[in-house]
Amino acid sequence: MKIRIVLADDHQIVREGLHALIATERDLVVVAEAEDGRTAVQLVADHEPDVVIMDIGMPELNGVDATRQILAHHPGIKVIALSMHSDSRFVTGMLKAGAAGYLLKNCACDELVNAINTVMQHRIYLSPSITGVVIEDYIRRSAAIEEPVLTQREREVLQLLAEGKATREIAEKLHVSAKTVATHRQNIMDKLDLHSVAQLTQYAISQGLVTLQG
Question: What is the pTM of this model?
Fold first, then answer.
């Protein structure tokens, strides 16, 4: 039986390249493609794939939170993160969300098939250059002060605010009232001790919730 895959990346050229590579493998098949995190979550629910190749920096819902939502409802699915970033906040963010692998885009084609086979054997796959980052970050964080904890919905609101979405637009996307969004925004500001959307945007970028490039 073929391993069924969903590709999630906001760059069409990346999806096309990965799709073409996967098509050369007899035991792999792409069943759906998504250009943003929210669509990826829906497509996973629709198709129930074995593996999701997940970009981190996507609009609407970033790869970290999309991964967290997917695995909350489909814990058996394997998510492989795909990013141009080797920074520890991206790597550890995806691993904490439950990703089974992490690939850098500049070597994805060479490693992708190996990564898929590895995670399907219930093992973790990390690009070689990522391993040291994970170890160093673990050591550093073991003595660090704990970050303020935002709820899943607060993280979603924060990302959409940082992407420049208006309150009403966020409310429509999340199917809640504008008043609820305003409450979430105030709670986020209170937790983080930040006092403007500009400061929230800077924080979201620093935490990897929003990136300039995926």
Answer: 0.73
202-212 mean pLDDT: 80
Measured distance CA(92)–CA(214) in Å, rounded: 16
d(CA 37, CA 3): 21
Q: How far apart are CA 97 and CA 68, in angstroms?
A: 5
Are 82 and 183 contained in the same domain? no
Verify that 94 and 181 share a domain, yes or no: no
Q: Collapse the DSSP code of 75 into the 3-class scheme (helix H, G, I; strand E, B; otherwise coil) and give the result.
A: coil
* Cα dihedral across residues 199, 201, 202, 207: positive or negative: positive
Write the CB contacts of 162 (distance below 8 Å, at least 6 apart in sequence): 197, 200, 201, 204, 205, 209, 210
- Phi and psi based region of residue 98 (left: phi greater than 0; alpha: psi -120 to 50; beta: remaining): left
Q: Please tell me the distance from the alpha carbon of residue 191 to that of residue 46, in angstroms, as a whole number.
A: 35
We report the CATH number of the domain holding residue 198 as 1.10.10.10
